[in-house]
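User: Can you predict the 3D structure for this chain?
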Amino acid sequence: MQFAAVALAAVALSSQPSLAKLVLKPSAVGAGYVMLTRSDGKGTAQRTLDLCGTKNYASESLRTDRLQVDYLKQGAKLALSNEVVTYQGSGAQKALREVAQHAQTCPNKPIAFEGQPPLVYTITPIRDSKLLPGYVALRINVHGKINGKRVSAIRFAVYQRVGSVLSGVYSYAVNGVSGAAQQAFVLHAAEASAKMLRGGSQGALPA
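Assistant: Here is the predicted structure, written as structure tokens:
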């Protein structure tokens, strides 16, 4: 029995996809962009889902591995991050449902979580027919006050799933970049992520 259990565990490990092969290549983000590692980019110690706070994300406990990297370009006003996560069982499906639910029900009041100041998050779904079925793509307008100073920013997040893998593509921009430009930037990267996930599904990713 013990030998059988060890053998089954080995099979489960061998069937897990290589996350390093599923993150975006810098060239897919844009000409001149480079990939940067993050100090919190590996493993499940760092949470994945925190849209509209950190409550009611039961899928966090179902994660088995995680890799997040950033993409920057010297002088560019747009930056990107790609996070790929594996889950046990139907955890990836659950994560996608949870983030969609949080997007729909986020209250119109300041929310503070994990050291973040209390800010208001106005979340609007966006559409892209080139993404994977069931995707969740969001424009996130952030505004409020920090130390008495009014702040505002636009961010985007796109979540897609194939099998046990969830991919999140997140964009950030400095002030002065239009929301339309940032949306085009993040959707271009998310479409590339969809292609990589589709390719992975031909191998180790069960549908």
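The chain has one domain: 18-201. The domain at 18-201 is CATH 3.40.1000.70 (Protein Transport Mog1p; Chain A).
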